[in-house]
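#struct-help
A.M.: can someone run this one for me? Single chain, 473 residues.
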Amino acid sequence: MKKVLAALAVVVIVGALAWEFSPKFQELRSGHETRPTLTTKQPGPVAPPVLQSLNPVLSRVSPAVVNVSVEGTAQAPANPLLQDPFFRHFFGNPPPQQQERHTKSVGSGVIIDARNGYILTNNHVIADADHIQVTLTDRRELDATLVGTDPEIDIAVLKVDAHDLTAMPIGDSDKLKIGDFVIALGNPFGIGQAATLGIVSALGRSGLGIEGYEDFIQTDASINPGNSGGALIDQTGQLVGINTAILSGSGGNIGIGFAIPADMAIRTARQIIKYGGVQRGQIGVMIQDLTPELADAMGIDTNDGALVSDVVPGSPAEKAGIKAGDVITAIDGKSVTGGADLRNHVGLMRPGREVTLDIYRAGNKTSVTLKLGEQTASAASGSVSERFRGLSLGPIPDDDPLSGEVKGVYVQSVDPGSEAARSGLQEGDIIVGANRQPVTDMDDLKQAAAAVKGHPLLLQVRRGDASIFLAMR
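D.P.: on it. Structure tokens below:
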């Protein structure tokens, strides 16, 4: 009996020792008990991106951004007293006396070709320039010559004769996404080169009335006067845009800046370098955005596309069989989101290029191939483009009631918010006179616009059975 009790005591002692040193006993003694693992998996929080110093990137690409200083002359406005009828009563109606005044301005530029010294900037930075000088980050000051401009996109190409230049790597602006980090490089307020960090706030901004062709990248990276023509780069140091405009009531940054996509700017620059100017293609259609209501009524399962509202007689579109009511959804495989998007795609291509358009017609998908025609009012037309930015002009259509009765230039479309729209021009108007001279074609209009600087251009317009005068600044 004693042996049994002894054996039982040994078992109890061994069991107690095992329990004391077991993980479960330790959890209970410490007050922490392991809870059973749940079988349902819950998504964890997304870790925010870790931003390290951008100094290595900026050190590499900053030499490709230059300061641009411009000196020029502009016409000073006439004495405002002579605009008052009371004073004209005493002084008569003397001819307006324009006085030239010396102007200075600053901006930025981006070296896109180090070997040949080509620099990309904004057209408005070098407008009316008599002398252009660029300053590099190594403090070299170089005289620059103007290769050519495209006022419709607000791009200009400069050339300098120098060695040891650094070119900016070109990125793919089509791959940008909202929320991507971007850096604006330039010369804000002329104080010297500076970098600001932000994100892509929006893409494809248009209808702002800033330029003739708009497909802006919107960013909250600080862009101020003097940044124009500078670089918008991604985190890897590749060029994705050319800073060009800000939306501000005070003239300073409020977090809404706009940049021309690098793809648009570089394609335009290549035309300027190769041909000295830009020629734009056209297909000869009147277009509008496809709304959800229109898509539903037309039995189309997409809200993206450009709706053809009319086809110009004799145009490439008519020859290819495009009809009113067709919806253009892609050009050469690139999706078309709306009317402005199609206009930008076509406007960046030279006349004579063959393109394929994907279209919806009566609920069916099809495609057509055509050769682009040449826009009558091209960006290379200088003062015409500046005066008529946001305006599409062409010959009088054969089906117009005034065709054969009057000679002039037909207003095909007017962008809302443009200077043309503010002057009162409307789609369907026919410009029959400019600067008190008859207008029979685009050459007449170009000459009249070029002859008037610093003053509004007086237009005589036929609108139906009425004839009216309009002043365009």
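A.M.: thanks! The longest strand covers residues 99-113.
D.P.: also worth noting: The chain has three domains: 58-278, 281-374, 379-472.
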